[in-house]
Amino acid sequence: MNLEIWQHAGNYFDYKSHKIFYRLSENSDEVLLCLHGFPTASFDYHKIWQQLSEKFRLLAFDMIGYGFSDKPTDFDYTTFNQVNVLQALIENLQIKKVHILAHDYGNTITQELLARAEENRLNFTIESICLLNGALFPETHRPILAQKILISPLGFLFGKLITDSRFKQSLASVFGKDTQPTENELNDFVTLFRHNHGKKIAHKLIRYMTERQKYRERWVGALERTKVPLRFINGLADPVSGAHLVKRFREVLPHKDIIELIEIGHFPHFETPQVTLNHFFDFHKKLR
Predict the structure, then answer these.
(1) Contacts of 282 (CB under 8 A, 6+ apart)
(2) pLDDT at 154 over 70
């Protein structure tokens, strides 16, 4: 499935006059929600979308500021506002039950959803969670150089001036050595990043990195306390959230359902889609 087909198969939801791109495989009050990370988009799931759709009704969306969604320069890109957009979309689609498959920043979105569930602020239930690589604990997050510059006072310049080749190089650096994206795949990442003048707001999107520290107790606490069935699938070769994150995960959380993928980097669902699918389906088979 190429990027053009993915876009044409999607729809747009209006959130406060902003267009939010989403894909819904079939109308249902129970869905598998696929959450993407930074700086990519829901297209990350295209390699496993078809096989997932054979077992689940699927919902994926591009967070505001990402992918094919609007990227307003005056929007307050906090995690709380991102979840507000998501809740509005779910309510609009009349969804009542959600299973979650999350990656990267999508993990933080999931943590905030769990926190709101504790506060009885969701009008749907979270039935299960499968997390892929992504920072769950700020103390173990190891951002790459481009992220460090982007969140610095010079970030607004770096986001505007970063070349396509530098962007590709930075993104490829978090993939496994033997599971690197192709040139065409990297071009798709660039297209999504640049769409709707996304380079202008990249420095605003990445502020979630500081939020993770500020709201650690809220978000890590929600994970510690949750009774929702949870599996963690991690590519150990990821320099950002790989083997060192798994170690911390075992120290902090009571959940023991962890799948470790040797020599796989930050994007398990992109680098080794069939293996990731097998572990995901096994998780849901055990739930049933």
Answers:
(1) none
(2) no
